Amino acid sequence: MAKMMYRDAVVSTIAEEMERDENVVCLGEDIVGGMGTPGGPEAIGGIWSTSTGLFGKFGADRVIDTPISESAIMGAAAGLALSGKRPIAELMFADFIGVSLDQIWNQIAKFRYMFGGKTKCPAVIRMAYGAGYNAAAQHSQAVHQILTGMPGLKVVMPTTPADVKGLLRTAIRDDDPVIFLEHKALYGVSGEVPDDPDYMIPFGHARLSRAGQDVTIVSTGLLLGFCEAVADKLAAEGIGCDVIDLRTTSPLDEETILDSVEVTGRLIVVDEAPPRCSLGADICALVAEKAFASLKAPPLSVNPPHTPIPFARELESAYLPSVDKIEAAVRKVLGYR
Amino acid sequence: MQLSREALLRAYRQMKVIREFEERLHVDIQTGEIAGFTHLYCGQEAVAVGVCEHLDNDDKIVSTHRGHGHCLAKGCDVNGMMKEIWGSRDGLCKGKGGSMHIADVDKGMLGANGIVGAGAPIAVGAGIAAKIDGKGKVAITFSGDGACNQGTTFEAMNMAVVTKAATIFVFENNHYSEHTGYQYAVGTSGDIASRAEAFGMKVWRGDGTDFFSVYETMREVLDYVRVPGNGPAAVEFDTERFFGHFEGDPQRYRGPGELDRIREMRDCLKNFRKSVTDAGLLEHADLDALDAEVLEAIEESVRQAKAADRPTAEDVLTDVYISY
């Protein structure tokens, strides 16, 4: 095991897979950084430091610094993937799917189906998402709710550096297109990461980060840590919470969620995206449909409100689900009569 | 360079297959037996064939909603295509794609495309792959005078130049983006090639109703783009669309006698026949024999399509993922 930051797990995994397979190529805006400047290539190395050193190691053919052209980046990833390469395309901010969505949604996600199963499109689309930087309405969003609903895509949302390592490796080696959502507020978080060069975590297998008998809390990403804090606090009161880190929202590990709810009878989903047609609504509906007889209280989803993400510190804090809001939700389902 | 007799016969046959495929669809669609939206390529055959006769399976093309001609010219199976358009389970895409999504990646045909302007970025990726592989292969995107106005096309042209992708932008100006004239919608006074040139590419122009103009122009374009390091190029072919934007389009935008005139004066098959017979390269009888053979082949494809297995409800659920 080695201790490393979430962002270093991203770049080291990409480097290892590029070393292993010459068909793996990267592309994105400023992933080299400094092209065409006095500072020269790698003057920056990607604004999230998730591509540092790749250009020096693998060269311009395989580490492709692109203009600010998100549609063309995603389209190029599509064309590379149909031509035998395994592209890893970076969208600097997940919010920019708005300018590139056709290539993700109508092209990459659908090639295999539209072409009658006769092709594959092994593209990984990485993007930094999430609030916590006071970056306001166009640079803070959690977009999994949009992408999870698109057949043909797999959607991955790692929470820990070890999961970044295992899930990103799986994504790069997967023959289907994968959306890999990296929470920007987690990039600096450190954790133990397995050294095994083939360490992979299969998609659709959630991780139980806390175990308890009374309430099931489902989340992923930044908010998972909030859920763990609530579980730890309540444990001191003798209240036990199962905290489930989904890891992937497509495919969804229904079994782990349902097994847990069958024991606890209570469900909280903590989701960073707005409430309508959300992951929370989806999982609450799943449990209502398939574990109705086990329920001791109505399933509850904790989401931000149905508003854009505000800028000011006080406003962003009020917008996001917090430890207090999650604790209140847990107490509400425990107190349901 | 003079084409061999075999090459001439092959080119004519390819164009004739596209023509008769589309003419037959135009008739069959009116019976209501074929579902969905269909956009016919009739009139533009010289472009698809004049381009694709230079290519092999390792060269890629990305097509459009008006894609049947590109597919056939790139080697997609006639029977498989007809079955696909009829929605058969045995169609080229198992009846899941239909007219606008025909693809055969093994043949280098990366898909027709229902989204106008979506193909150009994909061809940039394929062109970057060709550049990386360094074997002198190319990726070609076909775009009309409609798609040339999409931002995706602009992004793709710039990105191709910046990355030195082995990509060729083939613009087919058939004078109508759906139901709107190119002189209205293409801001550079209808000139697409000069716009591509402004992105930093070498550009060519040719007559898209003349197979020999397309073929010889593309020889120059390909000689250039196949040289590693040269990067992309663009070419504009002026051509004609014999049918409407989609089947069922009332075409009230056409001028009086326009369709009769372009069918008479700007028909690539008639032009080809006149050129090769006037020059004594082929006899009318050679071409008449091909005409008959092609008509029978299309008839057979329709027979097969009508008799082919229909997809089942279970087929809805397959081919979404390789594993899930």
From TrEMBL, chain A:
Protein name: Alpha-ketoacid dehydrogenase subunit beta
Cytoplasm keyword on record: no
Organism, scientific name: Novosphingobium jiangmenense
Domain Transketolase-like pyrimidine-binding: 4-189
Cofactor(s) demanded: thiamine diphosphate
SUPFAM superfamilies documented for this protein: Thiamin diphosphate-binding fold (THDP-binding), TK C-terminal domain-like
InterPro entries in UniProt: THDP-binding, Transketo_C/PFOR_II, Transketolase-like_Pyr-bd, Transketolase_C
Keyword annotations of the record: Oxidoreductase, Thiamine pyrophosphate
Classification lineage: Bacteria, Pseudomonadati, Pseudomonadota, Alphaproteobacteria, Sphingomonadales
Database matches in Pfam families: Transket_pyr, Transketolase_C
Stored NCBIfam families: PRK09212.1 (NF006667)
Automatic annotation (TrEMBL), chain B:
Catalytic activity: N(6)-[(R)-lipoyl]-L-lysyl-[protein] + pyruvate + H(+) = N(6)-[(R)-S(8)-acetyldihydrolipoyl]-L-lysyl-[protein] + CO2
Keyword Ribosomal protein among record annotations: no
One Pfam family linked to the record: E1_dh
InterPro entries (UniProt xref): DH_E1 (IPR001017), PDH_E1_Alpha_Subunit (IPR050642), THDP-binding (IPR029061)
Cofactor(s) needed for function: thiamine diphosphate
Keyword Acetylation part of the UniProt annotation: no
Keywords for the protein's UniProt record, in alphabetical order: Oxidoreductase, Thiamine pyrophosphate
Dehydrogenase E1 component domain ranges (all copies): 13-313
Residues in coiled coil: none
Gene3D superfamilies with a match to the protein in the record: 3.40.50.970
Role, per record: The pyruvate dehydrogenase complex catalyzes the overall conversion of pyruvate to acetyl-CoA and CO(2). It contains multiple copies of three enzymatic components: pyruvate dehydrogenase (E1), dihydrolipoamide acetyltransferase (E2) and lipoamide dehydrogenase (E3).
Protein name: Thiamine pyrophosphate-dependent dehydrogenase E1 component subunit alpha
Organism from which the protein derives: Novosphingobium jiangmenense
